[in-house]
């Protein structure tokens, strides 16, 4: 499940050439910077609600709305009919597909979002690729750097594999849904249509069509009236 076609419908991005000759989908992360250097241009077809900062080499497609306080540093390519909401922060090397949501106080850096991807509330996404209709709940954080030195490792056929990447957040397959306040450790790979419950801390690989449940215990007691 590591090849681009196993995780993503490559018809759901105008930037499928990023994945050419990639045996593993994470190899496309190395291509984002040169791809944008070759293809990004300053052209704004969007509308703005309020005042936003938009830097050089930023392309924004028709029908996209950029709300007050957003900052798009560039280089970036943003598709058609997107919502870039209040106080969103798009740092360097960002590719956003058509019909995407980048919400309030979300930060993106060195990422690819396929069409109709939703990153709507208080999210950090760095050095990652999110598939068609992938969704992050409020407060989801994708960690992209290990606390210890060295490159991110991924287990391939039972053996650790060096990705060659010091920074690598996650690959989230088409239709996957990550619940509120979950944290994905560096090098996480989430299969198509899988679900992670809120507050899960996930690392490693989750196959397609799986659910990760949070089994945190709760105590339920009778409510007693207060004495005055």
Description:
It is a single chain. Strand 17 and strand 18 (159-162) form a beta hairpin. This protein has a 15-stranded parallel sheet that branches. A 5-stranded parallel sheet has the order 2-5-8-11-13, with no helix packed on it. A 4-stranded parallel sheet has the order 15-20-23-26, with no helix packed on it. 43% of the residues are buried. It is mainly β. The protein has one domain: UDP N-Acetylglucosamine Acyltransferase, domain 1. It contains 2 helices and 26 strands. The model has no long low-confidence stretch (mean pLDDT 96). The longest helix has 8 residues, at 32-39.
Quick overview of this protein structure:
By secondary structure, the chain is mainly beta. The chain is built from two helices and 26 strands.
């Amino acid at each position: 499940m590591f090849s681009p076609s196993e995780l993503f419908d490559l018809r759901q991005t105008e930037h499928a050439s990023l994945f050419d000759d990639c045996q593993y989908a994470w190899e496309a992360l190395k291509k984002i910077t040169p791809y944008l250097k070759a293809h990004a241009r300053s052209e704004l077809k969007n509308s703005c609600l309020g005042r936003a900062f938009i830097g050089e080499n930023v392309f924004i497609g028709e029908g996209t709305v950029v709300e007050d306080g957003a900052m798009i540093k560039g280089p970036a390519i943003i598709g058609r009919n997107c919502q870039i909401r209040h106080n969103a922060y798009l740092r360097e090397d960002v590719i956003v597909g058509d019909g995407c949501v980048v919400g309030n106080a979300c930060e993106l850096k060195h990422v690819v979002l396929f069409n109709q991807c939703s990153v709507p509330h208080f999210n950090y996404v760095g050095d990652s690729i999110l598939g068609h209709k992938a969704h992050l709940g409020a407060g989801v954080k994708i960690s992209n750097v290990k606390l210890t030195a060295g490159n991110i490792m991924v287990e391939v056929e039972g053996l650790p594999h060096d990705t060659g990447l010091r920074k690598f957040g996650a690959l989230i397959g088409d239709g996957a849904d990550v619940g509120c306040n979950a944290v994905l450790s560096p090098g996480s790979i989430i299969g198509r249509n899988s679900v992670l419950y809120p507050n899960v801390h996930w690392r490693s690989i989750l196959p397609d069509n799986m659910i990760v449940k949070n089994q945190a215990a709760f105590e339920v007691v009778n409510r007693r009236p207060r004495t005055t």
